[in-house]
Specification:
nine-stranded mixed beta sheet, about 325 residues, single chain, D-Maltodextrin-Binding Protein, domain 2, alpha/beta, about 45% helix, 9 strands
């Protein structure tokens, strides 16, 4: 009798979880953006959330949880109920770089999260304040080598992709310029526009509007591929330096979230990519969409592991630590 009661209770619990997953979503979904409002993570999240909410039939709200290079908001998401109603927008900083920078990270990007989908790939752009006395990337590299100790660069925080990209550039050219971290890319860009910092390495989502508004000076795409929305900005390779960096964003949910729920979130994101209006908005900001074959949770999981294997040794070798 006792064992039958236990089995009945277990069966009821399993059935309840199943039907809850099938009915998902029944209430508002929260996207946690672990950086300041107005930055690329926030912008891309809002574009996707707007379309995904229509597909899912429920409102998606954006909650910014700023602090410690994105780890505050990411840690909050790790502790959330694994029911699909809390999604965190991940990126290179809190989901990869933090592993190499923190001795005691309050979450594990692999063990504590389930990947949903790669959101976008984001080419990185080297930009400077308007007053910097250089006309192109070749002149900038020479200027950086000669005056590095007198210059500074801004980023969206320690370990953010904007930080790692500029740190990598400094290592390539042998510069000792100073890093000035901000609480997100938007404040960093504001400082660059105001001339409070000398240069930055931002992703296209952040840089394109400022380049088009002529508030900053664009010098190079970090790589060997041109960005269609920035046809007049040459690549670093075209200007004689093998300097490659690519940012990215992705959606994650807490570990233990039912597979049926993850599949529904994934399908809603893919529906957004398939909408011409959404893809145009993302492309116009210089983003690249993941190939269809890579628009799966499994592909994102493999990519995340490869990024950790790639960047953590680099971070430790460079001595980059959380401040």
């Amino acid at each position: 009798m006792f064992s039958r009661t236990i089995l009945l209770a277990a069966a009821t619990l399993v059935a309840s979880s199943y039907f809850s997953a099938v009915a998902f979503p029944e209430r508002v979904i929260t996207f946690i953006v672990p950086f300041a409002a107005g930055g690329s993570t926030d912008v891309v999240a809002r574009i996707l959330a707007e379309h995904m909410s229509r597909t899912l039939g429920q409102q998606i709200v954006i909650e910014t949880a700023v602090g410690a290079g994105g780890t505050v908001g990411t840690a909050r998401a790790a502790k959330a109920a694994p029911d699909g109603y809390t999604v965190v927008v991940g990126s290179l900083g809190p989901n990869v770089a933090a592993v190499g920078m923190y001795n005691s990270l309050p979450y594990n990007p692999i063990r504590d999260f389930e990947p949903v989908i790669m959101s976008v790939l984001q080419p990185m752009v080297v930009i400077t304040k308007k007053e910097l006395p250089v006309a192109n990337f070749r002149e900038f590299v020479a200027y950086l080598k000669a005056n590095g100790s007198k210059l500074n660069y801004g980023s969206g925080g320690v370990g953010a992709q904007s930080h790692l990209t500029c740190a990598y550039l400094n290592e390539l050219v042998g510069s000792k310029s100073q890093h000035v971290p901000y609480r997100g890319s938007a404040p960093s860009l504001n400082a660059l526009i105001a001339g409070q910092i000398d240069y930055a390495c931002n992703n296209t989502t952040e840089a394109v509007p400022q380049i088009q508004a002529n508030t900053v000076k664009p010098l190079a795409i970090a790589g060997d591929r041109k960005v269609p929305v920035l046809p007049d900005v040459p690549t670093a390779a075209e200007q004689g330096l093998r300097f490659e960096a690519m940012g990215w964003q992705a959606l994650f949910v807490p570990k233990g979230t039912p597979g049926e729920v993850i599949d529904k979130l994934n399908a809603a994101a893919r529906a957004a990519y398939a909408d011409a209006a959404v893809s145009k908005r993302l492309f116009d900001l210089g983003n690249e969409l993941p190939p269809v074959v890579d628009q799966t949770p499994e592909a994102m999981g493999r990519f995340l592991k490869s990024e950790i294997d790639k960047w953590v040794p680099v971070i430790k070798k460079a001595g980059i630590t959380a401040q």
